[in-house]
Amino acid sequence: MQKNVFAPAQYLPGHTIKLVLGGEPYFAHLLQLINNAQKHLHFQVYIFDEDETGREVAEALKKAGERGVEVFLTVDSYGSKALSSAFIAQLQASGLHFKLFSPLPEHFYVFRLGRRMHNKVVVADHREALVGGINISNKYRGSDREPPWLDFAVAVKGPLCADLSRLCERIYREKYFGKLKNPAAKGPAPTAGNMRSRIALTDWFRRKNQIGADYRAAFQKAQHSIVIVASYFLPSRGIRNALKNAAQRGVQITLLLPGKSDVPLAKNANRYLYGELLEADKIRLYEWNKSILHGKLAVVDHKWVTVGSYNLNHLSQYSSIEMNVEVLDEGFAASVEDCFADLIGQSTLIPADRFKQDQRFYYEIFDWVSYTLARWTMLLLFFLIRREHRFKEKE
Fold first, then answer.
1. How far is the C-alpha of 177 from the C-alpha of 169, rounded, in Å?
2. pLDDT tens, position by position, 62-100
3. Are the folds of 7-205 and 207-306+328-375 the same?
4. Rounded to an integer, what distance in angstroms lies between the CA atom of residue 153 and that of residue 4?
5. How far apart are CA 89 and CA 97, in angstroms?
6. I need a labelling partner for 217 at 20 to 30 A (CA). Which of 199, 224, 292, 357 fits?
7. What does each C-alpha distance from 358 to 65, 315, 364 come to in angstroms?
């Protein structure tokens, strides 16, 4: 699909799509989606915390089940490993179909992680959906004392929602090939607008790398501009070369990266790449310092947008199930760029000359060590995950 990344024929028409910011806007939309569901609800998320936010969402899901909605809740067993057995039992007792994706072994699970379900998607009645990078936790919602992590999702109405429902059903049933028996979503959902969109998946074990391939293809074909918001930004050499080549063609590239991170090693590993990226005159780099940056999105040539769970690093590319929504629509792209411009206005520019002057020798060594450790850690995790996947296939 990446060869025709800007070809309208490669996208489904008939959608209404809106960008949703993390924090209260996302959770208000999520709760409304759950409360309005009438027959069927798929909810898949990496982290579901047993805090105030998690309990409120759980209560909404249980009430949906009580009014006759068939609810399928899938959470990743590693990302949501803190969930208590009592909390899970309450969900199951309410009639919800609950699943821990890829359950961890009781002992030494760090050596048998298996592939993880990192996508975050909610689909109601095969007609409306939320897809993004936002987990269910207080830190993603924010409070009076602490701002929410910066993150994004897209609210989707239209034919894509039936496809999302079927994908969620495959993940829930762990049936990735062949026909689903009596799939809940039959046929396309009705049209809801005029935007063109498609789903992009990454799941290395199913030989799917659509998201990374589409990122690279969009960067390679860019003629005017590239906008990127990225957390845990450790892109492959191929992606970095695509960005630098685009800059040499005169494409204006703007990156918004974390000024602080929940993973300090990742922050320093990011900084190791600054010097390489800032060598190009057409690359501007900003840091977000108001909260933890967890979002992942890009806009290319004011017309192509990708939003979802995929991080530009090897862990997302090789070790997780990831899901993005790609939109080919100038109006939607303009709305996302308006949001991005507002964020840039609150961010800190990292000038190339100032960065080089401020970089002390010991900072460079520390950043290099962080980058090397991060890359080797990802490679080790990939090795362990691949080993565990093959182990499970033989069972």
1. 12
2. 999 999 999 999 999 989 999 999 999 999 999 999 999
3. yes
4. 24
5. 11
6. 292
7. 57, 30, 10
Q: CA 325, CA 306: separation in Å to the nearest integer?
A: 6
The strand ranges marked E within the chain are 12-21, 40-45, 70-76, 97-101, 116-117, 120-124, 128-132, 152-157, 195-203, 208-209, 225-230, 252-258, 283-288, 296-300, 304-308, 320-328, 348-349
- Torsion, Cα of 68, 75, 118, 34 (10° steps): 30
Domain ranges for the chain = 7-205, 207-306+328-375
Question: Model pTM greater than 0.85?
Answer: yes
Q: The tokens 């935007």 sit on which residue?
A: 195
Burial string for 35-50 (b: 16+ CB within 10 Å, else e) reads eebeebbbbbbbbbbb
| The two structure tokens encoding residue 17 | 């799509």
Fold of 7-205: Endonuclease; Chain A (3.30.870)
Cβ-proximal residues to 390 (8 Å cutoff; 6+ apart), any chain: none
Q: Is the pLDDT of residue 115 over 90?
A: no
Gap between the Cα atoms of 344 and 326, Å rounded? 22
Is it the case that residue 361 has pLDDT exceeding 70? no
Contact residues for 164 (Cβ-Cβ < 8 A; gap 6+): 42, 121, 123, 129, 131, 156, 199
| 317 φ/ψ angles, rounded to the nearest 5 degrees | -70, -35
- pLDDT at position 114 over 70: no
Cα 244 to chain center, whole Å? 24
Cα separation of 342 and 1, whole Å?
32
Q: What pLDDT, on a 0 to 100 scale, did the predictor assign at position 180? A: 74
> Quick one: tokens of 64?
């949906």
User: May I ask the CATH class of domain 207-306+328-375?
Assistant: alpha beta
